[in-house]
């Protein structure tokens, strides 16, 4: 591999999936200024050959980087660091934060939202005016009781509305007491993991997988076992072989 890409390596003995290691190496190189905007990256075949990994592993890493807006395919020009990417100017504090373990998909500090950034919806299509009107309407009718400790399951009127929606639109018969409101995917997964898992339990994860589950489970002390997938889904036999 060319000298300018000496930062790109993998540790086969690490518990972190290989595609995640490649993703993190390139992402860190962009954040540290090792790779600049518009710089060409090595080909999928070249990286796979130099690192002795499957091409699909490199494709998964590149796909994640592309989805978060760090790289883009320029056709015959190959894969390059996104021209729209603004390199973050790190202060001493943000440098220390950058060295801390990150949850997968967390965006780098940037002066602008990156395209296809994980955890960020299509904000340009969000009905902000209507949202602000509804917020103001709810604020005008807030009661003193609603300012006290909230229900641990979430706002009751919202849970009641969701129960009605699920029954009408999805054919799911449930009631408000059966619904929990969580602060996003990570919060919901953490709640479920705390309820059904114990430290040192083992959990199968598809390889490659959506990055959030891996980091959530790792933070809870749960051992993750990457299991490959095929056109039928997760390879159960392979998972059994890899399980302790």
What does this structure look like?
The chain has 244 residues and is mainly alpha-helical. Helix content is 40%, strand content 9%. The strands form two sheets. The protein has a three-stranded mixed beta sheet with strand order 3-4-5. The chain has a two-stranded antiparallel ribbon with strand order 1-2. Strand 1 (71-73) and strand 2 form a beta hairpin. The radius of gyration is 22 Å and the shape is globular. The model is unreliable at 87-98 and 100-111 (pLDDT under 50).
Sum this structure up briefly.
The chain is mainly alpha-helical. Helix content is 40%, strand content 9%. The protein has nine helices and five strands.
Structure keywords:
mainly alpha, three-stranded mixed beta sheet, two-stranded antiparallel sheet, 244 residues
Layout of strands and helices, then pairs:
Layout: H1 18-31, H2 44-51, H3 55-67, E1 71-73, E2 79-81, H4 92-99, H5 128-140, H6 156-169, H7 185-196, E3 202-207, H8 211-219, E4 223-230, E5 233-234, H9 236-242
Parallel strand pairs: 3-4
Antiparallel strand pairs: 1-2, 4-5
């Amino acid at each position: 591999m060319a000298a300018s890409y000496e930062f790109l390596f993998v540790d086969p003995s690490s518990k972190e999936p290989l595609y995640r290691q490649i993703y993190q190496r390139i992402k860190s190189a962009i954040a540290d200024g090792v790779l600049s905007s518009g710089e060409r990256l090595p080909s999928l075949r070249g990286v796979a050959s130099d690192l002795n990994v499957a091409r699909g592993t490199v494709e998964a890493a590149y796909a994640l980087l592309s989805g978060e807006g760090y790289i883009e395919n320029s056709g015959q020009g190959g894969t390059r660091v996104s021209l729209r990417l603004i390199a973050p100017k790190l202060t001493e504090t943000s440098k220390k934060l950058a060295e801390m373990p990150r949850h997968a998909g967390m965006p780098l500090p940037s002066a602008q939202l990156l395209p296809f950034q994980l955890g960020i919806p299509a904000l340009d299509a969000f009905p902000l005016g209507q949202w602000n009107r509804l917020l103001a309407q709810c604020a005008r009718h807030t009661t003193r009781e609603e300012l006290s400790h909230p229900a641990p399951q979430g706002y009751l009127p919202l849970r009641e509305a969701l129960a009605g929606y699920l029954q009408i639109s999805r054919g799911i018969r449930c009631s408000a007491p059966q619904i929990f409101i969580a602060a996003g995917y990570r919060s919901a997964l953490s709640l479920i993991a705390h309820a059904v898992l114990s430290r040192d339990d083992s959990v199968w994860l598809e390889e490659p997988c959506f990055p959030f589950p891996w980091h959530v489970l790792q933070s809870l002390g749960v051992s993750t076992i990457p299991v490959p997938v095929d056109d039928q889904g997760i390879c159960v036999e392979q998972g059994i072989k890899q399980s302790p």
